[in-house]
Amino acid sequence: MVYPASAHVLTTFRELLKLLPTTEKAQPQILLLAGEITPFRNDTDREQVFRQESNFFYLSGCIVPSSYLLIAFQDGTGLSQKPSVELFIPKAELADMMWSVPPPSLEAASRTHDVTKIDHLEAIPDAIRTLLKAFPDALFHTLPRGSPLFPVIPPEFTDLVMSSDSKDAAISDLFLLPALHQARLLKDEYEISLIRKANEISSRAHEVVMRVLGKAVKGAIERGPGAGVDRPLLPGEWLIEKEAEAEAIFVASCRREGAVHQAYLPIVAATTRASTLHYCCNDREFAWGPIQPHDHQNRNEFAHGSARQLNPQVLLIDAGCEWNCYASDITRTMPVGNGGKFTPEARAIYELVLEMQKVAMDMIKPGIHWDAIQLMCHRILVKGFQRLGIFKSPSPSAISSTAPAGDDTWDPEHDEEKILASGISSAFFPHGLGHSLGMDVHDVPSASKPIPNTTLNKGVPIGHESFYTYLRLRLPLQKNMVVTVEPGCYFSPHLIAPVRDSKHIDQEVLKKYESVGGVRIEDVVLITENGYDNLTTVRSDTDWVEGICSGAL
């Protein structure tokens, strides 16, 4: 099936008309976009990885570098039902054929792109002149010009508009990007299928990492003669003893299934490094300690003559591939060491985060404001910390908002509502519950968190303002949104420092949990008519994760 670019063009123009001043709505509207070019490293001729600019792909389905789009629309005319979409691609040169894969021929491209016409780049000036002659009062729209965030449109193209015989033609870069973001906020069936595919591939990659860890615990990774000495290790002989090795297996699993790009830099953080939200270094070994007498819980270290063993720790992997320019975004936190089992403290935090996610999932449906779910996750964290003793409770005998009769130890200062109002839970859950996802992992920011935001301040309690500082989605949910649901709990010394002396925190209990580092669990969900569809297929329930990581399953 050909990518439905023409449907996306119509959706974009519908959103564009909503943004235009009334006096400009009836004018011809022309979009001029440049595709991404192949990047090179600094001043050398070494190519870097090419990935098409998301908005260009949305309107064209084209992944050919250095391409251009020229799209004409006018409300109330035939172009309002079927806009003219002209795609311009480079002509294949001999050097292209010698050094790399050349661009397709015009005939081949016409079979794979949902556009009106395809031509080579040298036809662009005449195409602009033709449109100006047909529509002398046209308003041309571009993505923000002069911004390093978008491909550059050569001045010779924009100068044609400004220097044309028609004094009524004009160019604006104010409306196209917000219109595209609004159009991309809701996904169609084709887009959902691509996101689903990306999540299926990434889910399997997460499970592959867990199963390699589990095989090592069982001593089931065997190395043949000369492995690592006379010859390199083969993939089936690899152990995961470093963050980089876990990343390598994840990316290789995705690449084997045909995914060209990762949607973002993988985050692979072991031990307390899991408290850094976007830890992308992935360059450290796991935490190790000396072998204790009669300690045989982690046989993978001993199988190859190691004189050390893994310390119990978590490994947080936040990683997801793209499939045809559509993203996935999955986080799993898994036990390393301790025979593939969580420590009691890590298990308690893991199950608290799992509870936060379950409660969030149960609330998801069209119409509910994302802020309300964010607030509920903070409430669940506060209650969980009170159960664990990290946050003090009103009474040693009960966690309740009402003082038990005759309880002289009741201290209303540690009431759940007062702890929530203090905002200290933000030190342990500092980020947003989730964000829009589509072609970009943090998709359509201006539509997801609009300024001004007319959906806020509707008389609904939202709790402490710090809960929303880093929330990337602040809207009521709508059918066909795709969002992540990623609660977390972290023990970052930098974030804890400002609240460490809080009267609500039991310092001795907190110390027991700080070595956990951090736990995050993240799934991608599609908002449906009555709830959601979880597009992430790798499981996260505690017993299953431990079963896989211990080699029992």
TrEMBL record:
**SMART domains (alphabetical):** AMP_N
Task: Tell me which cofactor or cofactors this protein depends on.
Answer: Mn(2+)
Q: One of this protein's Pfam families, by short name?
A: Peptidase_M24
The UniProt record lists the Aminopeptidase P N-terminal domain at 8-150
List, alphabetically, the PROSITE patterns matched.
PROLINE_PEPTIDASE
Per its UniProt record, what InterPro entries does this chain match?
Answer: Aminopep_P_N, Creatin/AminoP/Spt16_N, Creatinase/aminopeptidase-like, Pept_M24, Peptidase_M24B_aminopep-P_CS, X-Pro_dipept-like
Family listed: Belongs to the peptidase M24B family.
PANTHER family on file:
XAA-PRO AMINOPEPTIDASE 3, XAA-PRO DIPEPTIDASE
Name listed for the protein in its UniProt record: Metallopeptidase family M24-domain-containing protein
Q: Taxonomic lineage of this organism?
A: Eukaryota, Fungi, Dikarya, Basidiomycota, Agaricomycotina
